[in-house]
Amino acid sequence: MAGSPDHLFNLRNNFYLGSYQAAINNSDLPNLSPDDAVERDSLVYRSYIALGSYQLVINEIDSSAATPLQAVKLLALYLSNPHDKVKVPESTISSLKEWLADPAIGNNPILRLIAGIIFTHEEDYNEALKHTNAGGTME
């Protein structure tokens, strides 16, 4: 049974293979659904994070962006401050827990993935597994 074409296949493939610059360069995909556009943007911003361009992500994602993109921005903020691990994680963790507790957005797979990444960095593996186990994606 053939479904609709996966417009993000090449972008995902480049990202998963670690070809972050190729993912960024080939991300101009027209006519995406709103959900696909958010997923595309999250993959592009996560590529920038993987390349160490945290400040670019922080500057480009504003407060009106969708919650999954806000979560990606939170990851960039978290990773950009390796020396300030007292102040940043408290606000990061409280924001994540607030979003995850919200029934309207708490089941978003991108949000759950970002939560898993941050909780893993915090060495809170039970919390990381709790949120990624029910994420619904292969990531």
Automatic annotation (TrEMBL):
A biological process term (GO) from this entry: endoplasmic reticulum to Golgi vesicle-mediated transport
UniProt superkingdom: Eukaryota
Annotated membrane topology: Peripheral membrane protein
Cellular localization per UniProt: Cytoplasmic vesicle, COPI-coated vesicle membrane; Golgi apparatus membrane
GO CC annotation, single: Golgi membrane
Transmembrane spans: none
Keywords, comma-separated and alphabetical: Cytoplasm, Cytoplasmic vesicle, ER-Golgi transport, Golgi apparatus, Membrane, Protein transport, Transport
GO MF assignments: structural molecule activity
One Pfam assignment: Coatomer_E
Family: Belongs to the COPE family.
PANTHER family documented for this protein: COATOMER SUBUNIT EPSILON
Biological role: The coatomer is a cytosolic protein complex that binds to dilysine motifs and reversibly associates with Golgi non-clathrin-coated vesicles, which further mediate biosynthetic protein transport from the ER, via the Golgi up to the trans Golgi network. The coatomer complex is required for budding from Golgi membranes, and is essential for the retrograde Golgi-to-ER transport of dilysine-tagged proteins.
Name this polypeptide is given: Coatomer subunit epsilon
